[in-house]
Amino acid sequence: MTTQTATPVVARTRDELAEARAALTAGDVAVVMTMGALHHGHAQLIKQARARAEHVIVTIFLNPLQFGPREDLSRYPRTFDDDMEICTREGVDIVFAPTPDVVYPEGDPGVRISAGPLGAVLEGQARPGHFDGVLTVVGKLLHLTGASSAYFGQKDAQQLLLIRRMVRDLDFPVDVVSVPTVREEDGLAMSSRNTYLTASDREVALCLSQALKAGADAAAEGPSAIRRAARSVLVKEPLALIDYLVLVHPTTLEDVPEWYRGEALLAVAGRVGTTRLIDNMPVRVGPGGGALQVFSEHAGRHEAPVE
Ligand code: AMP
């Protein structure tokens, strides 16, 4: 049993990871995959992993495959010492922090995992190839860590959906667990990218979570009321350059029709200053509707036209 205060083993190479992994003999191993610059959202994933698994591996890897040529790979915050403090506090066993040449020893991999059509909409439309890059590295890190469960944030709803699809479609022997979005007190979803925001950007950025909340508050009235309520918040903030605001089916990501009742994803993306931000809220549409923390296991399977 790991003590809460022991410093995690840091593995930089495949051999170091294999050696540290082999030492975790008894019990399940869970993995939390990150790009570093850890915050309370990441800590929450680690806590949930620790609560259910005997051992936790955190990966810290800025995956070049998922960044486009004009994206923020080079300016992405790197805070390894602080990350280690959080991992130590949360009782992590192993931190796997490889460089790209360790993960991709042959350079750009010729073979990638394709996210398919679900990877081409919403974030995938704004960031072509992004989800192929994500799934490829998630697949590799699942193999390298040998974890039997993996924890991902609802904050990245489309990523979570695609990872669930990959695990099911390609028979990965791993249990995918989703963790609710952790927010600042004022509602802003925590993100490593929030450090890019100036004080005034940060004020502007609040409109994203406020729009989602307004939409969720209108959930009982149906899809068009939800969309209208959310949009009415966003139009009051012209400095937020909205890329999309959608209310979509939780597994097909298609716009839900007006008759839809059941679980749906209210998602927003936009640019504030120089920073692209995303946020979302799972909602129940229809009588008794409102915000949900995460989707139920059968989300989207029970929708039915209104009688
Ligand atoms: P990232 O380091 O941004 O790639 O995120 C690593 C993991 O942490 C992903 O599964 C994210 O969905 C999750 N995550 C990031 N921000 C939050 C948050 N505010 N609340 C919950 N999970 C989060």
UniProtKB/TrEMBL annotation:
Q: Which residues bind beta-alanine?
A: Q66
An MF annotation (GO) of this entry: ATP binding
List locations, semicolon-separated: Cytoplasm
Residues annotated for (R)-pantoate binding in this entry: Q66, Q159
Cite the binding residues for ATP. 35-42, 153-156, 182, 190-193
Q: Pfam families in the record, alphabetically?
A: Pantoate_ligase
Query: Which SUPFAM superfamilies does the entry mention?
Result: Nucleotidylyl transferase
Q: Which residues form the active site?
A: H42 (proton donor)
Query: Which biological processes are named by the entry's GO terms?
Result: pantothenate biosynthetic process
Using the UniProt record, give the first listed, main subcellular location: cytoplasm
Q: In which pathway does it act?
A: Cofactor biosynthesis; (R)-pantothenate biosynthesis; (R)-pantothenate from (R)-pantoate and beta-alanine: step 1/1
Enzyme Commission number(s): 6.3.2.1
Reaction catalysed by this enzyme: (R)-pantoate + beta-alanine + ATP = (R)-pantothenate + AMP + diphosphate + H(+)
Q: Which UniProt keywords apply?
A: ATP-binding, Cytoplasm, Ligase, Nucleotide-binding, Pantothenate biosynthesis
InterPro entries documented for this protein: Cyt_trans-like, Pantoate_ligase, Pantoate_ligase_C, Rossmann-like_a/b/a_fold
Broadest EC class?
ligase
* GO (cellular component) term, any one: cytosol
Q: How does this chain assemble? A: Homodimer.
| Main function | Catalyzes the condensation of pantoate with beta-alanine in an ATP-dependent reaction via a pantoyl-adenylate intermediate.
Query: Family, per the entry?
Result: Belongs to the pantothenate synthetase family.
Q: Which NCBIfam families match?
A: cyt_tran_rel (TIGR00125), panC (TIGR00018)
User: In the UniProt entry for this protein, what further remark is given in the free-text comments?
Assistant: The reaction proceeds by a bi uni uni bi ping pong mechanism.
Q: What is this protein called?
A: Pantothenate synthetase
Origin organism of this chain?
Oryzihumus leptocrescens
